[in-house]
Amino acid sequence: xxxxxxxxxxxxxxxxxxxxxxxxxxxxxxxxxxxxxxxxxxxxxxxxxxxxxxxxxxxxxxxxxxxxxxxxxxxxxxxxxxxxxxxxxxxxxxxxxxxxxxxxxxxxxxxxxxxxxxxxxxxxxxxxxxxxxxxxxxxxxxxxxxxxxxxxxxxxxxxxxxxxxxxxxxxxxxxxxxxxxxxxxxxxxxxxxxxxxxxxxxxxxxxxxxxxxxxxxxxxxxxxxxxxxxxxxxxxxxxxxxxxxxxxxxxxxxxxxxxxxxxxxxxxxxxxxxxxxxxxxxxxxx
Length: 286
Known about the structure:
CATH class of the largest domain: Mainly Beta
Oligomer: single chain
Strand order of the largest sheet: 1-13-12-8-9
CATH architecture of the largest domain: Sandwich
CATH topology of the largest domain: Immunoglobulin-like
Largest sheet: 5 strands, mixed
């Protein structure tokens, strides 16, 4: 054994770099206290071998104890850090959470605040209050936005011109209502046939159409330019012995709640006013 250790010592002294390159290397200079020998062969330049002397198990045990102490310290540090991070997270959530969550909560509170509720109420448009207007052959209807007047009511069995002939069915007549409408607003309006309803002697009746323009009047269902007059007609095919005609127009109900109504009997029949192109001229608005 003494010869082997001397050979290893000589090799290491000849190549000092190998001792640093091939760690771990344990060497005890005092022969009396030598407990073990653990040599890597490449550090000494000889074949690999392990030489164990009495006491080597005790050294390994001490090294394992040192390693376990280091591992225990690392685990303690990791556990302490984890507890600190978890505690910070809980404290943050109790104190209000992240800024983004706080902003969301603030926004939700603003939405449900009394000021926001008042703003929503202001944006809601209430429907106009319903009002009812009446126009008769003696007196028309008038308000700041419009005028509606009756300028004639006439019966026809047949209307004939050079181009067309309109003839009522057997036992019936054409009943033509002539109207004059003034648009006082700053925007054009449309007299809409879809908002017109009528009854003859209590029975609902639909208006019809003519190929001709009676007395030179066009149909009333048209655009009416701003601040202008327009003349037109409505026609129904009624029994010859009709007694009462009821007319309702709701074309302005959605805008200002207005519903116009009128009633006619044979006593209200009269020749219409002469149509005036100058008065009713709409230019390019029709």
